[in-house]
Amino acid sequence: MNPQPLVFVSGTLPGNSVEQLFGCFNVVRGESGIRSAEFAACRERVEALVALVTDRIDEALLATLPRLRIVANVAVGVDNIDLAACARRGIVVTNTPDVLTEATADLAFGLLLSAARRIAEGDRLMRAGGFSGWTPTFMLGTRVHGMTLGILGLGRIGQAVARRARGFGMHVLYTQRTRLSEEMERALGAAFVPALDEMLARADAVSIHCPLTQETRHLFSRERLARMKPGSVLVNTARGPIVDEAALADALAKGPLAAAGLDVYEEEPRVHPALLTRENVVLAPHIGSADRASREAMAGMAIANVMRFLSGEPPVSQVTMGR
Ligand code: DGY
Number of helices and strands (H, E) in the chain? Predict the structure, then answer.
């Protein structure tokens, strides 16, 4: 009799979806993912890997996993995985789209409000006993209602941000490689701008919702940040390396940016020291999808992908190269 396929589950997942694997498969869990002793002990037998964004799945790692057939990422972003290397080895990659869309859009909006209206800064001030009473000029921020919001990447999450923006009476601009249909633009109330630089020059706030690729790495370079509208706000809930953090710190110190809200960082969990000292940046610890329901749904989707694949059915959300 063939032994049951071995599924390695990286970290602890919320909810109880992992339990579905027991009985059907041989399951090994490792708290510190692919760096754990549990993983090292079973790597040659792993057929399915339930991976986290903190697991770097590259050529060198794949070379040590001779039986691997599927990587089920518990994330929508797959920049932690070398897709080309997986494709060369015939390894299927899946992700968890849709279930985290609204949660991430909520956080992007929260960061925008918090950065523009100085909420986190105000909280720090209160706790430090720095509030000596209302004055007309105290802690003036940037008006959110009615602002022009530029969205880089009007995919699922970008669209969810655009829907929220309507409730705030915002004018929404977007830019991406492929323009949406007129019908979708109308439904979202979003106007296409062909060039990123033009959008940056016009937008009072910019929210980043594109994947991290070779083309988007440091897309927000020093030069590009300098082209943003004076007094504008930058929000990043996508991936840290899309923004040059050192340049961002300078743009927050010397302009043109008034504020920024970040959930992701160039070298997580490290945050650039120059950002840590700035009052006008709100820093969240990569919690875009971290409402309980969304995280449980992400875990459930990753486990469903593994179960279906190992049972000979197509996974629910397979990632194709060049997505
Ligand atoms: C994702 O899904 O890509 C997030 O960054 C992790 O929640």
Answer: 12, 12
Listing DSSP states for 295-308 in one string gives: HHHHHHHHHHHHHH
Question: Which one from 268, 278, 296, 308 is the annotated catalytic residue?
Answer: 268
Residue 234: name the closest of 282, 177, 294 by CA: 282
Q: What's the rounded Cα separation, in Å, for the pair 218 and 307?
A: 37
Separation between Cα atoms, residue 207 and residue 113, nearest integer Å? 12
Structure tokens at 75: 């994330």
Which pair of structure tokens corresponds to residue 218?
Answer: 């440091």
Tell me how far apart the alpha carbons of residues 254 and 205 are, in angstroms, rounded to a whole number. 17
From atom 1 of ligand 1, which residue's Cα is the shortest distance away?
A: 75
> What pLDDT digit, counting tens, does each position of 246-258 carry?
999 999 999 999 9
**Ligand 1 contact via 53 beta carbon (within 6 Å):** yes
Q: State the CB neighbour count (10 A cutoff) for residue 198.
A: 14
Please indicate, yes or no, whether the overall pTM of this predicted structure exceeds 0.90: yes
CB of 299 within 6 A of ligand 1: the answer is no
Q: Cα–Cα distance between 20 and 311 in angstroms, integer?
A: 13
